[in-house]
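hey team, just a heads up i'm posting the complex here instead of the shared drive bc the drive is being weird again. everything in one block, sequence lines first with there labels, then the predicted structure for the whole assembly after. its two chains so it's a bit long, scroll down
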Amino acid sequence: MKILRASRMEQCIGCYSCSLACARLVHGQLSWSNAGIAIRSSGGMTTGFEARVCVACDPAACARACPTGALAQRRGGGVKVRRELCIRCGQCAEACPVGAIHLGRDDGAPYVCIHCGRCVAFCPQNCLELVEAAAPTPRCELGAAGDGSDSPNSGRDEEAPDAAR
Amino acid sequence: MRLASETFRVLRVDLATGRGTALEFGAVGEILGGSGLASALFERFGDLAAPWNAPEQPIIFAVGPLTGAFPLMSKCVCGFKSPYNGQYAESHAGGRLALCLRFSGYHALVLTGQARVLSSLTVGSRSIELADVHWLRGQDVFATGKLLRRVGGAGSSGHRSILRIGPAGENGAAYACINVDTYRHFGRLGSGAVLGAKNVKAVTVVGDADFALPEGREYPKLFKRVFDTVTATDKMRKYHDLGTPANLAPLNRIKSLPWRNLQATSDEGIDGVTGETLAEQLLLRQTACAGCPVGCIHIGLLRQQFAKDHEYLYRQVNYDYESIYAQGTMLGMTNASDVLALLDETEKVGLDVMSAGVALAWATEAMQRGLIGEAETGVPLAFGDLNGYLAAMRRLGAGAGEFYRLLGKGVLRAAEAYGGEDFACVLGQEMAGYATGELFYVAQSHGFRHSHLDCGAYAWDQEHAEHDVEGAVRFLVEDERARLTLCCMVGCLFARGAYPQETLQEALASLGLREAADNLERAALGVQKKRWSLKFRTGYDPARVRIPKRFLEVTTWKGTTDPEYLRSLSEVYSAAIRDLADDGADDGAASGTAPGMASGIAPGPANGDAAQGRAGRAD
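-- predicted structure starts here --
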């Protein structure tokens, strides 16, 4: 099972091609916001860019918070989404520890990364990658349920290929 | 909500009341968008006879039918009446504005009236807010951006684009720019002064709406094809790699790079300011306009010692070919860090880098010749002296004293008062960085935007030693139309290779805009005529264009300027654009007559991409 990592955001140029691709290809929309990955400049253009994207918690706080099962734990981290079960309560977005769930302005639906990796090919700077989730992944602090592991993520491919240009 | 529609959705905001009206306007199949939309809106809402700063005059920001749907459709067109020449003018900018405007739900934003106090306007898909920001008066461009980001309200979160002016715009400098998202600009012909006259310090556009995906398989297939063209091939590599400054060394080599107020066209000092030097020593990173995977915006790291011991500060300064020419070689500066330091000061005051650099170059020569002295400039000016230029740039932005107020109206205005018209490097406005030959001088001085971006005249000069007046003028007219077509969509001119006309037609059709696709060539001709008509009706007369003596003294790779060839080009091109304007005034868009033919110029193949692959293509 693979998960998406924004491993090399230092290389980001802020083109938003990843967010726009996610909206188009995963969510069937032309949207800058309704996407599972959001790129933000933190306080102006001089500060570079950061990605707000699901960090693939296991167990996932958002799935725990979801009262209907619309968001369910995904093997390897993150969640599976069954939009038809969602009642638009927004509790998943509140529960996400890294602010990676966007609630659609018009439909109130949660937009969260499903780790499909379709955005990766649209990053011209090679910032994104799909990695095996077999290695320990970041854990949310969920009290007794979490195992408290703070092992660093070792899923990153150290042999980063050249930027695809 | 669908992205594509047969008409344009326009928001008009009355700055006197802060209230807006959303309206349906025009037909995409006729006016296309971008440049065509801006000029049509100016015709509708502008007063052709009233001065540029009359409160009722509109300032227009327009995108096009492909904005938000395809890569590199990342530019926005600003239409306004220019404080520089009193004529209808256009300036284009990238950054995040194009996507923000389209995702705010509009194709265009039209600002009319005058705010009662210095104000900041925020527009989103569900918001219009005009806020009192009198406390921003006099603040520089960077401080303004930082303070606005801290303020709450509709524009405080989400994808947004922040436009703002500096002191120069507040002071009415005729080449004050509008800064877009820190590193991009509506640079030329004074849109910053127009916002200033309207008492608008800043405009924030929030892209918070969403659209349904176009139906069918055509759209996703074409998107992928275009995306692959611009990322997986080498087509755009040069723009990301060294960027436009790659042209500095080659233009210097062929004696076409203006140095020291165009006293020379080549200099051994080039090594200090080439694109290679900048990239190897100072390039910090590249960044992109929203929706463009190329990333051509080059940011240099300027490290400056500000006190004794090891006390340093750093600045991040955007550089391009044009800015290094105008505030580097034109001012005799051969140290790249010095050039970045001056560019940073120019950004702060909010002046167009090209006009400001050329203005100080003229002032330096005027001082050398004794036409002006420190009584006028306040500081000594000498080619290569950064400190003098830093101080002068602050004064120019502030409009400090009679000399700088006049210089801020344009070099020729200062020359009228102090002398020195012969060496004023002005071609309609202060020259762009191409001393390539007669056709460029005629193209910029007579051209619609008086910009090197109107057409590829600089490339023609480099390719054609022969004096083919008719062929050259036909190229100007046809290349302008090819570029204009893209500027209606609104695509970046770097994307010319990725978007030949057939691809634009496919793109429009994939969004369901079949009429616009089928009618593209004809509609572009109509827009070209209409735009020229508007320029003429707001006072333009090509017969009054003068090319200063300095351009006759220049030696390029072809030798010295040929005054007879220059005169012939001027005459024939003037006739060609007058024909276009006459047709536009008669609503002759439907005639389909190829411009130029009426002037006795034989028709020939369009050569819009003639500029590909040679020195001097710094759009």
